[in-house]
Amino acid sequence: MSDRPEVTAVEIARLAGVGRAAVSNWRRRHPDFPQPVGGTDASPAFALAEVESWLQGQGKIAELPVLERAWRQLETLRDPAGHPAAPLVPAGAFLLLLHREPEAWPALAAEPDTRLATALPRALAQAAARTFGTDGAARLGLPSLLGSTYLDLVRLLAELARPADAPPAGPAVGRATDSAAGPAAAFERLLTRHAEANTRQLSPTPPEAAGLLAGVAGPALTVHGATALDPAAGLGAVLLALPSAASRYGQDLDPVAAALALLRLALHTPAADPGPLPLDLRAGDSLRADAHPGLTVDAVLCQPPYNERDWGHDELQYDSRWPAGQLPPRGESELAWVLHCLAHTRPGGLAALLLPPTVASRRAGRRVRAELLRSGALRAVIALPAGAAPPYGVPLHLWVLRRPAPGDDFRQVLLLDAAPPQGAGEGGRDRVDWPELRATVTATWQAFDEAAATGRPVPADRPGTHRVMAAIDLLDDETDLSPARHVPPAAPAGDAPALAHLRGRLTELLAGLAEQDAALPEAGPARQPGHPPAVVTVGELIRSGALEVVSSGPGAPGRPAGHGAEGVPLLTDQDLITGNPPAAVTDPGDPGAPDAPVLTRAGDVLVPALGGGVARVVLPGGPLDGVALGRQLHLLRPDQALIDPEFLAGQLRSTALTRRAASHASTTARLDIRRVELPRLPPERQRVLGAAFARIAAFDTALHRAAALGRTLAQGLTDGLADGTLELPAGE
Hints:
By secondary structure, this protein is an alpha/beta fold. Helix content is 39%, strand content 14%. It has 24 helices and 24 strands. The protein has a nine-stranded mixed sheet with strand order 6-5-4-7-8-10-9-11-12, sandwiched between helices. The longest helix has 41 residues, at 683-723.
């Protein structure tokens, strides 16, 4: 048992509310900073007790937040040879007691420790039995005895789970601002904290992707008596996205993950619901040792493990789940999961899986894909943008299947390409427009699925987005089901009127560039050698009151904007660098979000914290006016009687200035905004230079816009001539 919890530099930064670079600076500048006790040279680990004592001695924290104190106690419960997440199970069991039987804890808390140590395990086992059935405690693997460390932990958890406006049940053990507004929120914070400390152990399906799977399943799961299964449940994200009215079944190879998922689902189910809850999550290998044999449900939804070589190929050769004896090849574990999910689906029921794109095209799996087409089971293959789910660099596919019912002779397949076209911008977890993606996928799928059920015509093909094909037309030597191979390109790429419009717009932009070029300042004579101009640092301007600076850390990405999403537009560093409007809105439900986000106003200057050469002035009524300050940004708010905003922004775009003020604690340059040096000039001269800087910035923006439009026009002309939709004029 570990009695000396350790923390990394990232975790120290979290405790003190600073960036990781600050911790590196403390180690260099303070000889008394605690020495590493473990880890590696690149990622050292420090004794938490020593770090906490040093931070308090330096006045950098008054006390350790409740969440961190609870995490410290969890770390002492961990067996170094056991599962890293195992201590979260008894912690979740206690939170379940608070959630389901809130009146039980105050009476238990009044007991002396000797009696509490025996009464609490019994109360947890009884709560688990009433919630999950008589074997509830065994399914969670709850210990029968709990030590004094666990008693300290549960007191912290009771405080962490306390709503912010509720008085503590006993002596306060932390700040009220550390409370998580309920047991479910407290458990989510512990899971997040565990994921941050064990980044390589877990890659859960994000809630947005889980919501997409639930959206594809449709309203059928909202009715009483509906059933759903996730045979690769992980931490239960997909089942959590389903309505609690549905009976939810699951299985996971990891027994600790299965127990945590069970607790998570119960904590998110209203406490008023009588137990036992319709939840049945079991541990075990779903392919080799199915925990739910013979079960068929309305919907099977999952993101199975990928690229497994040892999935049971040899011992499962004659399994009844393989149709027409089509045993999936050894290297096609994902197709084995597809057939497993289909076997658990009732006739007419739905199965939806997130799969790597290679499953649609690998030659080894063509026979299984062909059988899915011939039987009518495979209904849709949907290409998603990169960043939708882990691994985030891979643009996954969503496969949707229906188990054929007797008399079902529908044999058509929807191929939907929801990934952005090449050149439309880099993908990434924070760049996925989830409201738009979910609306496109669910609307198209539901229209297609309804047509299949009613016999009405299927949706008309939409170039660049989707195409409906007869299954027989997909059967060939490869049976490649990749949407990008079959969906025709968007019509504007080769549409003559659209290209003419683009050319006219480009002509206008180029003419405007010529006018802006004429307005650019002329290059005057070089400055003669002499005394350099006097300078003043941003730090000095802050101390004098002439400038206010607000800097944001890594922060949370918020929620995607659009489709009625509530919240304030949230600007990130990438939005600022690319010149795009905010792609997200603030999420008031985020426990780590501030109550009152910093909002921009006219005259502010915005600079990314990483990199350099970009600085934008907030104009009245412009796209940056009144937005929330997102992650990795500096906001500079000058006293405009003393500092001209355009002058300040122009100086911050200077190559030499940003190079001098950048630090290189990692492979990325970080702008140390307080070290930035500005020439000390009177306001009148600043305004003259600021106007010139503004004209240069406008020219640069127009130049980039014209370049992007020119590339689009060139690609459209190329595509049109290549596919024959455009003809050369006579004589050429």
